């Protein structure tokens, strides 16, 4: 069975995408959140990023051709911006850390 044939993988990918999309949509009102709202938003975004990091690691470790192609595709897309997947995750974390520090100061 291929990596993407797994119903669990499909459900997890769908849930991860849905959660991320919801947060991005919610984030458009980030400036209107109070301090606690900002902290909760950041925590939820960190949680989604961690789930995504784990999901991608499972792709990398899989010997499934489709999973390996997905990893290669992401690496190719990111390389156009001069970035690796690890740098992408690091950048996201730095942004969230900065948002967290700003939320603390705003309190």
Automatic annotation (TrEMBL):
Pfam families: DUF1825. It comes from the Bacteria. InterPro entries: DUF1825. This is DUF1825 domain-containing protein.
